Records
---
Amino acid sequence: MTAFFTPCWKSALKVLGLALLLFQVSLAQEQPGILAERADINLADESWHINADFSVRLAPVLEEALLNGVSLPFVAEADLRRSRWYWFNQRLTAPTWQIRLSYLPLTQQYRLGNAEGGLSLRFERLSDALNALGRVRYWRLGGRELLQKGESYSLGVRLRLDTGQLPKPFQLNAMTNREWTLESSWLRMSVNP
């Protein structure tokens, strides 16, 4: 009799363990934050350009603020350094790219706008706007002479919510509430042109 129940319990525990694992994976995917997925550097039009992908998920507090008219400023940062054996690595350039995510209640659309005012994209759904925000393409790093053949370089990229550009009352919230802190870790890669 016990020989029949033992295999049943083992298979039931396996199914329960698999269900628990899938539940944890689904929770990890829904966590708010920014995850740096990949980055690369290309030479095009006599300039070096960065392409990077980030996965962006907003906390419910940020979504509520966005729907109430607060524009969320994001900044993408890059850090290019030349490796040196005799001293610290030399920083060659550290460009930033600023973009704002806002909600337009009259048209019920989400808007991504460049800080310089040149780029303006509109989306029906927040998920589409966040996907576009996380796809950084053709971001100019510098001219052809920036990287020399035979040298070794280190490139780091990240995306974060720039809480310093929020309205003052929300800057206080950002200092006291962790849900307002939204940034990816630095994604580092070595570059050998």
Note: Helices lie at 2-30, 60-67, 126-133, 168-176.
---
Amino acid sequence: MKTRDDLMRVSRGYWESRAILTAVELEIFTVLGRRKFSAKVVAKRIGADPRGAELLLDCLAGMGLLTKTGTGYSIAKAMAPHLTEGPESALGMLRHHAALWRTWDRMTEVVREGRPAPSRSSFRRGPAEARAFTMAMRAGALRLAPGVAAELNLKGRKHLLDLGGGPGVYAASFARENPGLRVTVVDLPDVAEVGREICREYPDVADRVTFHAADLDQDDLPADADAAFLSHVIHGQSEDEVRALFGRVAAALPGKGLFIVRELFTGPDRTTPPSASLFALNMLVNTPAGRTYSTRETAAWLKKAGFATTTFRRSKAAPDADYILARK
């Protein structure tokens, strides 16, 4: 930010965010679907105050999410694939963001007291929460996984562990990109159960994608793989937990084994890129000890765990993370 206007724009940025998340929580987009309704009809269907519903619908139309024709509202054509259920739907991730709102709202007390905010969105809280979280991760992975699988060279690898692979979308993409590759998704039992369900959508690779229920924070890993992929996991862990996990991965992989860590890494001073330092705050309010880590410290921990070489690589396929490739 360079000007007062920049400061004010960012400071009130939550106005737009809150309008979208309220619409998601009230199921406005689900009610509309591919149809057009008046504000009065929408208000009745979502059980809301007519005045409040109309003002919110007008705002959403002004933002370009809805189209208003006369007194009727419908989802804007360009946004329909993302605001209705389907392969390009963003609703799962938006519901996740709505759940995160409550923890971010308590950031002041979290910073003051040093404890994460109470959360209902943790995948460790039970089957319902695990399902909601895993479906949200699926929504994000559907768009990115094919490109990630295409830009990572797994030629000659026989068995890949997708650690914390949740919905299995990356696993299926790796299997499709590499016809001779078996992929085992390692995740918590409740998450793995949802992942198995999701992977029925990939019958062409169903015989090469399997799930292994385990806790990455404490359980040993399957020992017959020659590569491992860890995407967006370590930011939820403490430094000690990251080091321990790297050690278990190193123990599970054979000589010349490949370990790919995909993360939103920071620079050496942990201030840039801004998306990474902001995400560290997300971990502050939602986890006891998580944060984003720098490429330098992550590479050092990998070498100490037993990996001989580490290479940093930018991702062209996905803007939300880069890679460190570690080899034994």
Note: The radius of gyration is 22 Å.
---
Amino acid sequence: MLLCLGINHKTAPVEVREKLAFADSHLHEAIREMRRLEGMEETVVLSTCNRVEIYSAVNDPERAMESLREYLTRHFDLGDFAQHIDFYHHSGVAAAWHLFRVASGLDSMVLGETEIFGQVKKAYATAQEAGGTARRLNKLFQQAFQVGKLVRSSTRITHGSTSIGSVAVDLAEKIFGELSGCQVMIVGAGEMSRRTGTSLLSRGAKSIIVSNRSHDRAVELAEEMGGKAVRFDDWEETMIHVDIVITSTAAPHSIIHPAMVETVMKKRRGRSLFIIDIAVPRDVEPAVNELENVYLYDIDALETMASEAREERERQITLCEAVIQSHLDENGITALAPIPDRPPTGKDRSRPGNDLVGDSPEADPITHS
């Protein structure tokens, strides 16, 4: 049986999502711990700024779900707070269908975004490295990649702004108009920072400054974008001169505090500072937004802008789901195909439908989850 347990931007605000964000440095061990839980056989963890989802192959669904909830409460030290988290869960066909929608960008804050496809691939690769996958999840995720590519090549779901980074740049343009005269500092040198910086350059940003705990990575990204790298200890001084700060680090706690920004603002001579925080957990303390001439937007605030571009993309959802359905009508769900007890005999091979994928009690016709 396949299971999916999770939260996302539609079911939980950023204050909740950041409590459940898995640190990359501990993810391998967490996957191994979850696979050892009662009822669990395989595990993949998808942890992004907009969702935390655990996909599992299990032999005892009820016990596995209970064990998983207990593990999350324990792992993140949630205590009584766990009772207030609105997890969703899917099983069997519904779990597979959900993953196919996620990989296709149909369940994202920005419909059709492209980052999620890479994030799903990374989550699967990490689980493989940790020994978290076997037959069922291998087949499930490999088919999800096929479906995701098929949806994007067959529809217009990726047209327009397709990422959180692009929406962040849209916001900067709304604030300043043209970006040709703007100086931008990016704090963090990961993939999200790279994509955001690339979008800024394509919209005409004058100069981009990159700061990161690993200075070598900051230099690498800055050179790629024709910008300048500053050491992490020096970025506060640099903030005095820039117009926009975009933060996207993997820090487990906030790194920009009100007192720090207040000191910077005293040296800016009344110039406004716009901070766009697209990290989860958040890089910037919310109280920063209370400072005069400081305008802070976190990842949930970007949902407002994302919704403006949703109408056209929502018209594509029905077409995208029809593409998924057609693929599954033809191929079934490979992860739910039965495991043969013995090599098929000649008689078995001649039986009609014996080679069809999804020929099992779990592989019912697809229904929406």
Note: The longest strand covers residues 40-47.
